[in-house]
Write a structure and sequence with these properties.
CATH class: Mainly Beta
Order of helices and strands: EEEEEEEEEEEEE
Low-confidence stretches: none
Shape: globular
Strand content: over 45%
Distance between the termini: 38 Å
Number of strands: 13
CATH topology: UDP N-Acetylglucosamine Acyltransferase, domain 1
Structural class: mainly beta
Length: 101
């Protein structure tokens, strides 16, 4: 497990191996195993496993497995119910809103 000193974690469950970059903010998140979160990412109310999230991404309310997110992606779940696990591959600067009406 690798965790940058500047990462901010609140109510986080980690299952290694995981790598968390500098300036990452995690709130109400479950990570791992086999997950890497790049520098400057913000994850809130999410579950991520077997995935690579490149720098400066924002994830909110999602459940990702076996996914690859490019730089500066935004992935948001907007419905009140818990999201089903999904696998995505997103290019740099992509925005994906699940559960959008």
């Amino acid at each position: 497990m690798w965790l940058a000193e500047s990462a901010q974690l609140s109510n986080v469950q980690l299952t290694g191996p995981v790598a968390i970059g500098a300036g990452v903010t995690l709130t109400n998140v479950t990570l791992g195993p086999y997950t890497s979160i790049g520098e400057g990412c913000t994850l809130r109310d999410s579950d991520v496993s077997g995935s690579v999230v490149l720098p400066e991404c924002t994830l909110e309310g999602v459940h990702l497995t076996d996914s690859l997110l490019g730089h500066r992606c935004q992935v948001v779940h907007q419905v009140g119910e818990s999201p089903l696990p999904c696998t995505v591959m997103l290019a740099d600067d992509s925005r994906w809103v699940s559960g959008h009406n």
